[in-house]
């Protein structure tokens, strides 16, 4: 088949994938990670600036180091603002590009057109990939996979043509992929697998049904490893940076919290569960609660399955090498997230299967093709079955996209398909709170705390809910319990500060405001509220205009001077500092911003303050 037709097939796969995921553009942001990544992150929603770009390379925020992902989100905000359709469109386009690139990659590796197309089609429409595409925060998945595939394409070109330029391009793409998501650290291992099959460079004679270009000269394992050294170096560097970021963010669990025996069993069972959901993708959830323990039969079944499948893959290694390559692709690329290094509490996640699933698709498509080749009348039947499978997967994917419409639909689905899901209860409670359904939100948070008494975030959020119900004593107790479990919770300190402030206990309120700011120096709300106390405390000895100006200025800068109440606080701070021209300018800005947002009551209040500052300026003028 000529190259023009190959590109047309790739383009057709791109269009079909984009059409399948078009409904994602109707989905919104969700309250699971999207606030951290985009909507409440001033470094991101303010767009591309020099300061934001510098921040993106700092290790630790969100327990991750992926500067390219941060930059991609900034660029989205620069172009689309906080309109979710644009963010979803970019994710869908990247997934569609990845589908086309996957087809081109395996066609160039093997020369097999329809098998490569089927691998790409399965990748495009598999329901487990909905999470990676429909979740805005998972830009890191589709973006890192984009560079992963470009790396493999460049590496293939280098092997075939030995152009040093292609080797350096592959290294560059790999570095960019790691900067999008460090899960790509297993890529050097994938390069070795491709050396074995279909590139045939590993010095082991295997039977391959396709020959693309001139056959590369077989190399010894030490030589193959040596040429991977730059890739391994980048992978190790990424691992070190990621571990530092996860430790700083408190996401890396100790051996006491997750013993090695638990991790090994979890890995065995999770491998089996990933395989099961890739074969039969039902009851998919954004959150799978961790197991308190597995039945013996579950552990034995998982271990027996892994051993049996591995034995078949090794047995078929010479005659049908795709079995071993596909199986090791699946096992190997899941290693960073299988739980041996435990990050967070999740037992597994659909998004982690985005790249690993390709290994199983390889086995399926090549094995079915072999079966059709040995059965003359099998091709029409297998083609029909393939259409049925793709249709089924596409329908389930369409159904799963509806789940991602908003936070409410997302967590209601998770609660319907899982049991004792404390995280889903807590997040659903947060969603209900945002819609002022306080009673229902409290019930969800209380259930989350019942299921997981040491769930710090749920304890803290329940305290905030109780505070909204003016149940201040119980709210303070919940927040204090959250801080006992984890003293480094800026949100809990901020909520306690609000409680003390409501009780006119200004000293305690200031102490908790300062602690919240110490823990999160760029936290606009406590910066603003502390500035207001310092500018308006009834006791003059407790006021500090200079510090109030500093705090309020930072709060306004972090919110891009778009929140009129914070600009009003800045005006009050300037007035307390005796800087009346600046106070007048800030009050005018607060009034105009409130008017532009349709808040006439707030605009009127700022107009009154403006008159007060103008008269104060006149009074202080010589």
Protein architecture, described:
The chain is 70% helix and 0% strand. The model has no long low-confidence stretch (mean pLDDT 91). The chain has three domains: 101-209 and 217-402, no CATH class; 445-521, Tetratricopeptide repeat domain (Serine Threonine Protein Phosphatase 5, Tetratricopeptide repeat); 524-622, Alpha Horseshoe (Serine Threonine Protein Phosphatase 5, Tetratricopeptide repeat). The longest helix is centred in the N-terminal third of the chain and has 27 residues, at 84-110. The chain is mostly helical. The protein is elongated, with a radius of gyration of 28 Å. It is built from 30 helices and no strands.
Q: What topology does this entry show?
A:
Elements: H1 3-20, H2 34-39, H3 42-45, H4 50-56, H5 67-80, H6 84-110, H7 113-125, H8 130-134, H9 139-161, H10 164-180, H11 187-196, H12 221-227, H13 229-248, H14 260-279, H15 296-315, H16 322-334, H17 357-373, H18 378-403, H19 407-417, H20 422-434, H21 438-451, H22 456-468, H23 472-485, H24 490-502, H25 506-519, H26 524-536, H27 545-558, H28 564-576, H29 580-596, H30 600-620
Structural class category: mainly alpha
- Helical proportion, percent range: over 70%
Taken in chain order, the helices and strands follow as HHHHHHHHHHHHHHHHHHHHHHHHHHHHHH
- Helix segment count? 30
Number of strands: 0
Low-confidence stretches: none
Distance between the termini: 89 Å
Tertiary shape:
elongated
Q: Please identify the oligomeric state.
A: single chain
Major beta-sheet overview: none
Q: Rounded to an integer, what's the Rg over CA atoms?
A: 28 Å
Number of structurally distinct domains:
3
| Average residue pLDDT | 91
Beta-strand content: under 5%
